[in-house]
């Protein structure tokens, strides 16, 4: 029997939740733009899956995983406000959300921090959201 990846299930749940938010889509140019890596020629605002870590967190016979992951919002140069607006909306959509995950149950999803910065070379504004999550494998 092949086990499904808890991280990939979590990412699919995030995409489904965020993809259904019309306000977020409007801020991102008409649709959710959340990618694994920056697409060529993409004009901000868009978001990227940033660094993530998944650790075994099994307890009392339940196969659980603790996740630490980031989402990075990139905005037009000189537009920290647009990065923060997108990041705040993502945070509102995901913090303590109840997502449906394939092959797993979401036990916890919590925003840990939101940080913003400007790339000195390009002037591009960025906002980084850090989350923690706990998933449990379905029986």
Give a verbal description of the structure.
The longest helix is centred in the middle third of the chain and has 15 residues, at 80-94. 26% of the residues are buried. The chain has a six-stranded mixed beta sheet. The chain is of the alpha+beta class and 139 residues long. The protein contains three helices and six strands, in the order ααβββαβββ.
Task: Give the secondary structure arrangement, pairings included.
Blueprint: H1 6-19, H2 22-27, E1 34-35, E2 46-56, E3 64-77, H3 80-94, E4 100-101, E5 104-118, E6 124-137
Short summary:
The chain has 139 residues and is an alpha+beta fold. It has 3 helices and 6 strands; from the N terminus they run ααβββαβββ.
C-alpha Rg (nearest Å): 16 Å
Structural class: alpha+beta
Strand neighbour order, sheet with most strands = 1-2-3-6-5-4
Number of strand elements: 6
- Provide a count of the helices: 3
> Low-confidence segments, ≥5 residues, pLDDT <50?
none
Largest sheet: 6 strands, mixed
Q: Let me know the average pLDDT.
A: 92
How far is the first residue's CA from the last residue's CA? 12 Å
How big a fraction of the residues is strand? Answer: 35-45%
Q: Percent range for helical residues?
A: 25-40%
Anisotropy-based shape: elongated
From the structure provided, what is the oligomeric state, counting identical versus distinct chains?
Answer: single chain
Order of helices and strands: HHEEEHEEE
What labels would you give this structure?
six-stranded mixed sheet; 3 helices; 6 strands; alpha+beta; 139 residues
């Amino acid at each position: 029997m092949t086990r499904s990846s808890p991280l990939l299930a979590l990412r699919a749940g995030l995409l489904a939740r965020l993809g259904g938010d019309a306000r977020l889509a409007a801020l991102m140019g008409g649709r959710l733009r959340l990618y694994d890596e920056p697409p060529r020629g993409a004009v901000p605002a868009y978001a990227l899956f940033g660094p993530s870590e998944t650790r075994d967190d099994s307890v009392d016979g339940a196969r659980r995983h603790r996740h630490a992951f980031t989402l990075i919002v990139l905005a037009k140069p000189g537009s920290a406000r647009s990065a923060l607006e997108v990041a705040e909306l993502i945070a509102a959509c995901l913090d303590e959300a109840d997502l449906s995950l394939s092959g797993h149950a979401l036990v916890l999803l919590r925003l840990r921090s939101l940080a913003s910065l400007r790339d000195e070379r390009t002037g591009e504004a960025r906002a980084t959201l850090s989350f923690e999550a706990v998933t449990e494998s379905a029986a």
